[in-house]
Design a protein that fits this description.
By secondary structure, the protein is an alpha+beta fold. 58% of the residues lie in helices and 12% in strands. The protein has 16 helices and twelve strands. The strands form two sheets. Strands 9-8-7-6-12-11-10 form a seven-stranded antiparallel beta sheet. A five-stranded mixed beta sheet has the order 2-1-5-3-4, sandwiched between helices. A hairpin with a 3-residue loop joins β7 and β8. The longest helix has 100 residues. It is a peripheral membrane protein.
Length: 591
């Protein structure tokens, strides 16, 4: 079987020698690409092809990484691609990653693509817990990651549950608190809503500005031993070399800034650091493998070169890139202001339209109510007129009956003389007739008064009808003519707004004003940093009561101790570098 495998490998090698091209697969943080490369291509040829494809000009931060067994290695620019210990199977896979990190992302990263690749790589390292991040900072970083993906917060679009499928927090942070996914989303969304007005690029930069202050940001760790055989960790980053205890990757025991190191070299597994002061002892340590020493040396040389480069005047290429970036930012700022003005005018127009529609509906309701009141008044007037007519007829009928009673009484008086008995009977009938006549007279008078009262009620109803008609005419006139302060052409149902007043000329005064605003933003940087710290403390206070102390990792405990002591990445580095070289070297040997 071994002979068959050897024969197969030999056959593949023979085919590769006879071929003119070989295939490679490049994996970036956003996508994968495949290229056909010539057999003679060096690492630089492939790297330049990838950078041109991505449109990347800040090439000094990046490299092509591949795996050798369980060790990571970087493609060397001056060697042929096939001369590296890469896989024999095609396509050969390389990962396009950031090899060196900036000291200050906001000042050093110029291109949007550079910023985007750094953002995605740092975010991945934080989520995979390769970079330790405290819980409160994790929530804030998650809110900026959401903003970088979705843009401005909109409560109508970003409703509860829209982050259910997103991976935003390290598992360590989630397990550390008695909080549901909905509770985490609520806190992340609350922070996300505060970022309104920023662009996606600005959210990515804010993410990097917070992440670069984390203790493990940009540090490559390697297991080493000093002369006494003590196991230690060597950290290589943009500022220098750091020595850590194996269980504490946050706080270095001693540091060697790049400006204090004269030379770095290795022989087999022994690594040598020569300080700038020749009178100082040379520092030596051992690593596990020769390949690791080669990787350490590559990272040291690259970080040292960038350290020196940052402290010199920018090259013409970098100056040109920064100038173009400033012009692009100014153009985007003007465009954002224009869009903001258009949005504001559109919102004002919509508010005016809504107000007109609301006023129109109100006038329609008032007109409807006035019509109903007028109808009721007309019905009441008709009813009262009918009652008054009936009362008059009843009064006439009663008067007629009273006259008839009076006639009957006179006739009874004439016939009363016929006899005593008849007289008595007649007197009784006369008395009854008088009482009936009196009653009829009283009823007639009462009916007359009632008729008079009905006439007065009819007159009042007609007056009410007249007032209702006047009110209706007044409301109708309001609906027809425009209200004060509004243009006459804004009343119709379809509102047309001219956008001619949105056009403007981009003049030098705009650029000067933008420059002044940029300077003002720099002056306000310290205030924003203070606000950021207050925001982190507030988040920490909100979730502290739900924390499970027994689930804290050793790095969590160390981070809390550093926070209580007021120790940060920058303050610790300054404190260590202020020490003299000899005590620091002696301390390293005593570890």
């Amino acid at each position: 079987m071994a002979s068959a495998l050897a024969a197969k490998m030999g056959f593949n090698s023979l085919i590769r020698k006879q071929a003119k091209y070989f295939k490679v697969k490049i994996c970036t943080m956003e996508s994968d690409m495949e290229f056909k490369c010539e057999m003679k291509w060096k690492g630089k040829d492939l790297f330049d092809l990838v950078c041109r494809t991505l449109g990347l000009r800040e090439t000094w931060f990046f490299g092509l990484q591949y795996n050798i067994k369980d060790t990571e290695a970087w493609l060397k620019m001056e060697r042929k691609v096939l001369d590296h210990e890469v896989s024999k199977e095609e396509p050969i896979t390389f990962h396009f990653l950031a090899k060196f990190y900036p000291e200050n992302a906001e000042e050093e990263l110029v291109q949007d693509i550079t910023q985007r690749l750094f953002f995605l790589q740092v975010k991945k390292k934080i989520l995979e817990e390769e970079i330790h991040c405290p819980p409160e900072a994790s929530v804030l970083l998650a809110s900026y990651a959401v903003h970088a993906k979705y843009g401005d917060y909109d409560p109508e679009v970003h409703k509860p549950g829209f982050l259910a499928e997103e991976e935003l927090l390290p598992n360590r942070v989630i397990n550390l608190y008695q909080m549901t996914a909905e509770m985490w989303e609520e806190r992340i969304t609350a922070c996300y809503a505060e970022h309104r007005g920023r662009t996606k690029d600005e959210a990515e930069m804010e993410y990097l500005k917070i992440a670069q202050d984390l203790d493990m940001y940009g540090v490559n760790y390697f297991s080493i031993r000093n002369k006494k055989g003590t196991d230690l960790l060597l950290g290589v980053d943009a500022l220098g070399l750091h020595i850590y205890e194996p269980e504490n990757k946050l706080t270095p025991k001693c540091s060697f800034p790049w400006n204090e190191i004269r030379n770095i070299s290795y022989s087999d597994k022994e690594f040598t650091i020569k300080p700038l002061d020749k009178k100082t002892n040379v520092f030596k340590f051992n690593s596990s493998r020769l390949r690791v020493n080669k990787l350490i040396l590559q990272l040291c040389i690259g970080n040292h070169d960038l350290f020196i480069r940052r402290r010199r005047v920018d090259s013409l290429e970098v100056q040109q890139m920064k100038s173009q970036a400033r012009e692009e930012r100014a153009r985007k700022q003007v465009e954002r202001q224009r869009l903001q003005r258009e949005k504001q005018l559109r919102e004002e127009a919509e508010r005016a339209r809504d107000e007109l529609e609301r006023r129109l509906i109100q006038l329609q309701d008032e007109a409807h109510m006035a019509n109903e009141a007028l109808l009721r008044s007309e019905q009441t007037a008709d009813l009262l007129a009918e009652k008054a007519q009936i009362a008059e007829e009843e009064a006439k009928l009663l008067a007629q009956k009273a006259a008839e009673a009076e006639t009957e009484m006179q006739r009874i008086k004439v016939t009363a003389m016929r006899g005593q008995e008849e007289r008595r009977i007649m007197e009784q009938k006369m008395l009854e007739a008088e009482m009936l006549a009196l009653k009829m007279a009283e009823e007639s008078e009462r009916r007359a008064k009632e008729a008079e009262q009905l006439k007065q009620d009819l007159q009042e109803a007609r007056n009410s009808e007249r007032r209702a008609k006047n009110k209706l005419l007044e409301i109708t006139s309001k609906a027809i003519y425009t209200s004060p302060g509004l243009p006459s052409d804004s009343v119709p149902q379809e509102l047309n707004f001219s956008r001619e007043n949105l056009s403007f000329d981009f003049k030098d005064t705009d650029m000067k004003r933008l420059s002044m605003e940029i300077e003002k933003e720099k002056v306000e940087y310290m205030e924003k940093s203070k606000h950021l710290q207050e925001q982190l403390n507030e988040l920490k206070t909100e979730i502290e009561s739900l924390k499970l102390k027994e689930r804290e990792t050793p790095l969590d405990i160390i981070h809390n101790q550093n926070t209580e002591q007021g120790t940060s990445k920058q303050s610790n580095f300054k404190k260590l570098t202020l020490q003299s070289t000899k005590p620091r070297g002696a301390f390293f040997e005593e570890l």
